[in-house]
Amino acid sequence: MSKKQERSISEFNNELKLKGFNIFQIEKDSYATKVYSRKDFYKICLTTGKSRIHYSDKSYNHEGTVLFFGNPHIPYSWETLSTEYVGYTCLFSEEFLSLSKRSESLQQSPLFKVDGTPVLKISEDQRLFLNTIFEKMMQEQKTDYTYKDDLIRNYINLIIHEALKLEPSQNYYQHQNALSRLANVFLELLERQFPIEGIDKPLVLRTAKDYAKNLSVHVNYLNRAVKEVTGHSTTSHINNRIIHEAKALLLHTDWNISDVAYSLGFDYPTYFNNFFKKATGTNPGTYRASHISTNKAS
Known about the structure:
Number of helices: 12
Structural class: alpha+beta
Radius of gyration: 21 Å
Strand content: 15-25%
Shape: globular
Helix content: 40-55%
Order of helices and strands: HEEEEEHHEHHEHHHHHHH
């Protein structure tokens, strides 16, 4: 059985994590189709074409050029509706931009807030100006300049401040079935918490209240939506996904039980042992040992 300390979803994800930043043209760079962990990276897109963006409980229809801000804490998806779709994508981690010192103000701005407006309509003059900034970042990314990270951070902040001066797009509609959309957003956000890629990055959202707070809704409303749409409680979905991840960690890593417990958000191994046994009928150590024996025998 192959074991490893770090679990990753793609080579591009590893490269992006090492640098904490990447920018590429959507129509030319193969990275446009690469998989990366959305739970770790902010995203800024400048795109021209026709598309529909689903963000939290809203959907935005647009044609022309828009500037989009993706928050790793808020689920979103993108439908391209035109055959020609061009622009730039910039991905960066919280650590790269040093958001720890000012993340609260940014996430409360219309660009990053869960009930805000992350899509901005861009005029032709604005597009040309922003194109220049994205191009400069692409060029700087390839250089060996000692302070290029600082320069790229300045470019990102310039885009953010230019965006804050613009009027937000109002071309959006609320989903007709708000409960259905909220349930789907919850399920996407739940899935985004996984896989657990390292012991140093434990699961943060552990309870229904955690998810409700992240989605800016009351926990009772979230529970009602999830139960009505899926037939199962919010807590049941969370626990089932944690058990699924626990099994994967036990079988495909060499982490000890305490490390697995901590990575899944349990303060003490005994809490994890009780949780796992209640769900599976056996304890984590026995589960791991039995499956290792089975694999060796086969």
